[in-house]
Amino acid sequence: MKQITQTAPTKEEAINVALKKLEVSREDVSITVVEEGKKGFLGFGAKPAVVEVTVLIKEEPSKEVIIEEHVKESITEKTFPDESSLKEDMKEMIESSETPSNEEAVAETIQYIKTIAKEMEIEDLVITEKREGKFIYLHLNSEKAALLIGKRGQTLNALEKLSQLVANKFSQSFILIKLDVGNYRERRQESLEQLAERMADKAVRTGQPVEFEPMSSSERKIIHNALSSRVDIETYSVGTEPNRYLVIESIK
């Protein structure tokens, strides 16, 4: 783990110098302000700022990303097959009427979710399915929707990840499973976007960095995107999963 303690007249200068020395961007580090620093008066009583900058361990790419890249590579390799390959493919198509299908993968995933729901004593679960290309959207309905969502969507996010693993086991081509309960995803996004604006305004008003509670990468991305057009603040993530959190800082 790379770490550096840097001293400079101001906190920002110290951070920038440390980033240059470490040859990394701000999003790749954890920053601890050891000493804020003081300007002093007429050169007397001035104190330099001291910061401790630690390079974060890079997150391993998710299984979904790895699979997607593998599929892209496979498609690229087979974009221009030779004539003999084409003939073989045609022969196989004629000899067999079977074509790759993800029906089993979807069915197994739905059954898995229902099994988990029963263990949570949810007996009225209804699952509706919608397909858009590689995306399989499964909408869950129940009188006990709150149990499926969990605190800040943690249960729903975990169930979605597990469902993706089940789908990968049975799918014959790349698919992505997306779960929602009572339009929770849409409502959560709207809530995060509104919160982002309020916290950004607070950062500008107070001149102090505003830290969010730890949240998933997808939710941090929503906040990043919601504030991407603002020129008076910057956003960056700090820490490591699952405790990685987002910070909004005013640009002076």
Polypeptide structure, described:
The chain has 3 domains: 3-55, no CATH class; 63-77 and 101-182, 2-Layer Sandwich (GMP Synthetase, Chain A, domain 3); 186-250, Ribosomal Protein S8, Chain: A, domain 1 (2-Layer Sandwich), CATH 3.30.1370.50. Strand 8 (233-238) and strand 9 (245-250) form a beta hairpin. Helix content is 44%, strand content 21%. The chain is built from 8 helices and 9 strands. It is an alpha+beta fold.
For the termini, the CA-CA separation is 31 Å
Please give the order of strands in the largest beta sheet: 1-3-2
What name goes with the CATH superfamily of the largest domain? K homology (KH) domain
Residue share in helices? 40-55%
CATH architecture call of the largest domain: 2-Layer Sandwich
**Uncertain runs:** 59-87, 89-100
By secondary-structure content and strand pairing, the structural class works out as alpha+beta
Beta strands, count: 9
Radius of gyration: 25 Å
Give the total of domains.
3
Described by strand count, sense and barrel closure, the largest sheet is: 3 strands, antiparallel
| CATH third-level topology of the largest domain | GMP Synthetase, Chain A, domain 3
Shape category: elongated
Determine the strand fraction and express it as a percent band. 15-25%
Specify the CATH class of the largest domain. Alpha Beta
InterPro entries: Jag_KH (IPR038008), Jag_N_dom_sf (IPR038247), KH_dom-like_a/b (IPR015946), KhpB (IPR039247), KhpB_N (IPR032782), R3H_dom (IPR001374), R3H_dom_sf (IPR036867), R3H_KhpB (IPR034079)
Organism: Psychrobacillus faecigallinarum
Function: A probable RNA chaperone. Forms a complex with KhpA which binds to cellular RNA and controls its expression. Plays a role in peptidoglycan (PG) homeostasis and cell length regulation.
Protein name: RNA-binding protein KhpB
